[in-house]
Amino acid sequence: MFNLFSIKGGIDNVEGFFCDGVNVGMKKKSADAESSHIDGDVAFIRSDVLCDVTARFTTNKFQAAPIKHYQKYPKDFQTNFLLMNAKNANAMTGEQGVKDIDMLFVELAKYHEVYNPIMSSTGVIGYRLNQEKIASAFSKFDYNAKNSDNTARSIMTTDQFKKELAFRIELDDGSSFTIAAICKGAGMINPAMATMLCFVTTDANIPKADMEELLGEATEQSFNRISVDGDTSTNDTLMLLANKVSGAYNKEAFREALNKITFELAMMILRDGEGANKLVAFEVTGAKNEQEAITASRALSNSLLVKTALFGEDPNWGRIASTIGASGVECDDSKLSIHYDNLLIYSNEQRELDKEREAQAYVIMKNSSFKVTCDLGIGTASYTSYGCDLSYEYVKINAEYRT
Amino acid sequence: MFNLFSIKGGIDNVEGFFCDGVNVGMKKKSADAESSHIDGDVAFIRSDVLCDVTARFTTNKFQAAPIKHYQKYPKDFQTNFLLMNAKNANAMTGEQGVKDIDMLFVELAKYHEVYNPIMSSTGVIGYRLNQEKIASAFSKFDYNAKNSDNTARSIMTTDQFKKELAFRIELDDGSSFTIAAICKGAGMINPAMATMLCFVTTDANIPKADMEELLGEATEQSFNRISVDGDTSTNDTLMLLANKVSGAYNKEAFREALNKITFELAMMILRDGEGANKLVAFEVTGAKNEQEAITASRALSNSLLVKTALFGEDPNWGRIASTIGASGVECDDSKLSIHYDNLLIYSNEQRELDKEREAQAYVIMKNSSFKVTCDLGIGTASYTSYGCDLSYEYVKINAEYRT
Fold first, then answer.
1. Residue A379 CB: number of other CB atoms within 10 A?
2. Cβ contact (<8 Å) for A94 and B348?
3. Which residue does chain A place closest to B334, by CA atoms?
4. Residue-level pLDDT at A190
């Protein structure tokens, strides 16, 4: 059928795409915990041929100006330029926020040919973009660079590490295409997207209809299943840009690659969950229907008491059970069972946690990732969402962010 | 009409009620941060004449055994004895949990005459009550004591301070009655009740129908409006016990006193919110309908990003706006306005926070309590809920609880 290879780097691997990021003085230091250099704060991704584009945006009612700007283009528009900035979300800025983007693109056109340019922003809500500072990037950009590292770093905010991934797909007929993405996000992460930006580029010859279908599917099994703190931002964006220049395409191969890239990036966001140390899968099985499975699973990944118990490595299954009961789904404590990985923690016949199983539970909870499975024993529906623990660091980061 | 006086102490003020608490070795130290003595862990409240009783219980589907035990009594039952314990919630203990209560009451009857006795428990979920330890209290109780202090301390878990209140109501005809309560709760607090126990006693000659009506009303304006962490426990109980022995009653006076006592206790829980330093009222006005006002208000009091911003004393109204937008209610950023107390923080005409208003906002946020008002500008419905900040202490308390 096809072979899928993980390759080094990010969107620099994709034929026909160019990208760069520069610092114009909005970021004072690197967001990367392990880096001492100054990250960029304005960046671009461009293609030398026009791209089809499809996107999923935040469900927040107060969509930021860049999202409103995007939505003014006609359906099925094509573009050759994406401009990005950190430190300012351009959200809650009203009509002026959209005008500010148009003004920036008038300025940008003096430096590079742009067609239906798109913008994406992340940072603090409620302030107009600094036109002068952002426009000062336009003479600094190397428009022929393929610097995915700089670009990915430029959209980082509270992220502790850079997020980029690339895959090469070789088809049986000897043709091949590439799919690659950069991503940012660490907090304000909730199902139905979060403060996350993710830009996927590909040179695959993918039809527009497949882009829509497969991006929707990819979103559902990745970004829609993670929660850091239950908050959904004004700026969330997942975008797929396809310039088709490889000429190669296979739908199943593309589906697998896109699902893989989005799922792995979603897990990277969760690993980077502000101050988080553990990645936990919350699987709910035996639910009455899918909606109830989703409700119970998300209640677990959002519960403060569950998250602090994870941080404390306390095998306190009572908080798991209580959260299921509080979520409002149909359940019965005589039908419920709870596992940590393969270890039975609770069932009707085995309610109290004896010393031996408690010791085994401790071992599992020391791992940096594990699975909590709650079988409601009511029906046949299941759902898995992904969460992380809540540490002192989360409070520190979010009490101090902005100031 | 009537005069309402706040009086010292708790349920010791109410004629015909007796109460005491003792330590049987389940608590090793006082929960009270300012106390060095050892609190009780088993306690009782009894009346020398039979009481009418009405209660509101948790909405959690996994109701604890004491609640199931209570619900086995016929409607309109009367009782003379309430037994309480801390350290063990007797939740998720199945049928055995209910049998354990009955067994304890068989034992208790050897020491004191009980009629339809009630039990209430708080603590860790998932373990059977230690019959032997709890029963050892029965010979230690002073059944004729009026020791509200010991009783209130005995139900404390993560509480930092004891919660009791009493009011005396003098009617125009010279008659009078008393209403008093003890309460526990600090975390796992969410609208629709929380890990809170509250026992209100009165000697008012209140009809049973009024007890039902007024307790429902009191719940709605107090415990149903507070949130510490969005979690709803298996054991929440608000109970009103009336022995009628004063012979005095006035419905309006009782309503005012009961609303006051439950509201003030709810605010005490919030003040004690695990690690919390600030009490914040979230008022939503101009909502499309009451349900939307409730949804938006509760989203604010539950948001981790709002709570950490409160802890950081950061006038970051973007998080307030984003939370409103994410809550799914009808809203429009050109119609929205946000106030901190009387200070306008955001409106369509005044989006960016200038230095002067930011400085004023800092002053307000330094206070130990203030009000955030969001006018959605859509309709006429309004609702206020109450929340607190999220501090390092919350994480510490809940990571370490149990171990």
1. 15
2. yes
3. A94
4. 44
